[in-house]
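Standup notes
- DV: blocked on the single-chain target, sequence here:
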Amino acid sequence: MVSKQLRARYSSPVGKTLGKKALIDLLCAEGVKYVFGIPGATEIHFMDALEECPRLTYVLGLHEAVCVGMAEGYARVSGKPGFLNLHTGPGIAAGLPLLYNAYYGHVPLVVTVGQNDSRLLQRDPHLSGDIVGTGRLYAKWATELAHAEDLGTVLRRAFKSAQQSPPGPVVVSLPQDVLLQDCGSDPRPSMEVRSRLRPDREALAQALALLREARHPVLMVESGVARSGAVEEVVRFAELIGARVYQAWMADVNFPVGHPQYLGDLDPTSPAAKEAFRQADLLIGVGCSLFAEGFFNPESPLPADIKVLHVDDDPWELGKNLVTDCGVQADIKTALAELNEALVAFQRDPHYQARSEERRAAIAEEKAARERRFTQALESARRQVQADPAGPVPVAYLMQEIKLALAEVAPEAIVVDECWSSSEALRHIVGFDRPGSYLRSRKGGSIGGGIPLAVGAQLAAPHRSVLAVVGDGGAAWSLQGLWTAAHYRVPVTFVITNNGTYRQVKLVRRLVLGDYPLTERHVGMEIDDPSTDFSRLAAAMGVVSERVTKPARVGEALRAALTDARRERRPHLVEVMVENPA
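- DV (later): unblocked, structure below
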């Protein structure tokens, strides 16, 4: 606590408020509950004022990237902006990997950064830096306060901008002398953001004309659907038009995995994409990027004569990379609801209805074949366990045990996914059909999000269980988040899949260089010598933990961890030594 003498030295005249106190009052007015941060010298005055406000809970992270990840998880589950306070130039720089994810994933964050006294900035003080310039890399808006009188204007604008469609992070630099200036107190919140904007009538008419003419429509969805709360509408839309449904990157439940028309992830650069689009005459993108390829391919996966219809709330995405016949800029939920209302009339046309039913039947056959492949993989994993009960644990077997444990102990759970090379098995075998039941890094894909995302999600939904499945590579990036979970008794169940290799990198290597056994060792891709013992590291940070090497122990360990986390309100970690098949 600051001494009485120092507090008196910084007191304000009657009728005035210190900038740091006005800042705290504004946060309370905005409904902020948690401040995610890691303090340094430039945060002293902010922290001093924060200690006087019991309404705000400070959540300490031991690395800035962890703070950003926790704020993202909180924002995505709560539906409110996540609020952070970071430490000057190095602090904002250290948080950039996960700020990148939040920016490209359209996650609303308000990021404040302590800056040196503005009267020192021309003298290159310690740890100073271009906070605004750094923040602009991955922020909708970045600014630095010059006067305490601007606090209300800037903070309200920050919260408004973070939430306006398309949402995203904003960055505000807070010089220390500004926090000690006198200002008038005006703790009114920002305007309520209402982004349910209706689509243009002519755009809707053009979209309906394309839909009526289409014989083989393909629908691609991404996280814009979840952001808009439009899962119900997009399912209805897909059923009315009888389209195949894919995702380029699954980061939320944007379409029920178990739905008969959902055919999984589709990398637009893969050979499978060309086959999927081979007969398509209409590509419909909803809340997604068309396309955000990871690798250059001189040949387009799309037929030359295909039409493109794109519905999004982000004008930048419309017509960005593909020649687009119809772009509908609007709130996604609202646009789909209006399209669906019009499409119902199409069903009165027996020819259109027959074509839709025929397409749905063909898709059901393709879906059944896909399901058989996963069933065979699971059966193969069971045979492997019977033949080698000492381990390691087959990935498909682990995911089946996770599914069973969740069904028995925590059917309402939120699952956070950062297990990269095992992610497809997790998504398909567990099967995420309910909105809000699954979180993964949106679009950005910077590693290290899993552990902090889960901590933030749990704080936003204390009444639900949260289970995070994280690969050994991702866990190593943000392991400090385990300390935060233990310190604040955040009852996440962490499952670390340890295979001692960057298997995802090897999968990409195979894509680029051609087929080869994934058990081959390659420079920079092996992390098994020495083998990291995550269970012991977790225990050192105060997390109840266990390392599982035998398949027979997996289910029991998962159920015990989920049960105890809920009952005792404390985090658990189960490290599973998984296979690394060729």
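- Follow-up: Residues 6-10 have pLDDT under 50 and may be disordered.
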